[in-house]
Design brief:
This protein has 280 residues and is α+β, with helices and mostly antiparallel strands. It has seven helices and eleven strands. The strands form three sheets. A six-stranded mixed sheet has the order 1-2-6-7-8-9, with helices on both faces. It has a three-stranded antiparallel sheet with strand order 3-5-4.
Length: 280
């Protein structure tokens, strides 16, 4: 991709994030608090824009644990911390990895002031400082493609199919710019019907060209590993694996926590303006 094309996509991504922060959900009144982030996901897939639809009370309660994200190890501790003092191995579920890593997470949590820790007869006991809330209601993934012509839609389709099959997000959308045609080209190509399409005008406002289907993150997902690439005459089988709902739930918590910490303006920290008087 040329530098000019990269900047165009980056600018469009910021426009989508800005719109989502003030305009989500499209075509409906806002009933939930919204957190918007960018460039987050799993090690196999990173979404351009993420919208968290949050319970407002839960979001306020989440703030008691600080601005920093709870990583995967802390998420194995904090939500399960007991109301009264208890030996940590009795209080927490088996993590599936050595307990020494749990102890490290416990001490990190204590250093952050989000977990009470003491020693009693040589044993480490823990007690929660507050109830960790179920603060995220829905996760929406948006793929940003400002120039979604026919060939771009064909290239994008397999990735969107993977997102839908995995079902990690509650909804999957594609954001693109208006072409002036009565029907946007992406709708005429092989983009899965389960994905919604948002069309942005030059002023930065969006309208829904296609509504998505809601996915079920609590159901077993399918990770597509390999697809036939020999065209219409390729009869070879696709390779895939099933994804446990518990893994999906854990990943959703991790994504939500990173989104809470980073938001969509984190790019400002890496900017190197030429003018020393630059402010944002």
């Amino acid at each position: 991709m040329s530098g000019q094309g990269h900047h165009a996509e980056f600018d469009f991504e910021l426009r989508v994030c800005q719109w989502a922060e003030r305009g989500w959900p499209p075509g409906r009144d806002r009933e939930n608090a919204v957190v918007v982030a960018r460039q987050l996901g799993t090690k196999r897939r990173r979404w351009d824009t993420i919208v968290l639809e949050c319970d407002l009370d839960g979001l306020r309660q989440r703030a008691t644990f600080g601005e920093d994200a709870l990583d995967s190890d802390l998420l194995d501790v904090i939500p399960h911390a007991p109301a009264d003092w208890d030996f940590y191995r009795d209080a927490l579920p088996d993590p599936g990895y050595p307990w020494r890593y749990v102890r490290e997470a416990i001490h990190r949590a204590a250093d952050r002031g989000i977990l009470n820790v003491r020693k009693n007869g040589g044993k480490i006991e823990i007690r929660r400082t507050a109830v960790y809330p179920d603060w995220v209601e829905r996760i929406v993934a948006i793929e940003n493609k400002p120039d979604l012509d026919a060939s771009a839609a064909r290239r994008l389709a397999p990735q969107i199919e993977r997102d839908i099959a995995l079902g990690l997000a509650d909804e999957v959308w594609i954001a693109t710019t208006a072409t002036g045609e009565r029907v946007e080209p992406a709708l005429l190509e092989n983009v899965p019907v389960e994905a919604g399409i948002l069309v942005f005008d030059p002023a930065g406002d969006a309208e829904v060209a296609w509504h998505p289907r809601s996915l079920d993150p609590t159901a077993t997902g399918v990770r597509i590993l390999e697809r036939p690439e020999g065209g219409n005459h390729d009869a070879s089988a696709a390779r895939f694996e099933y994804v446990d709902p518990a893994w999906k739930e854990q990943k959703r918590h991790e994504i939500a926590e990173r989104a809470y910490e980073r938001g969509w303006r984190s790019y400002v920290k890496s900017m190197r303006p030429d003018c020393r008087h630059f402010e944002l």
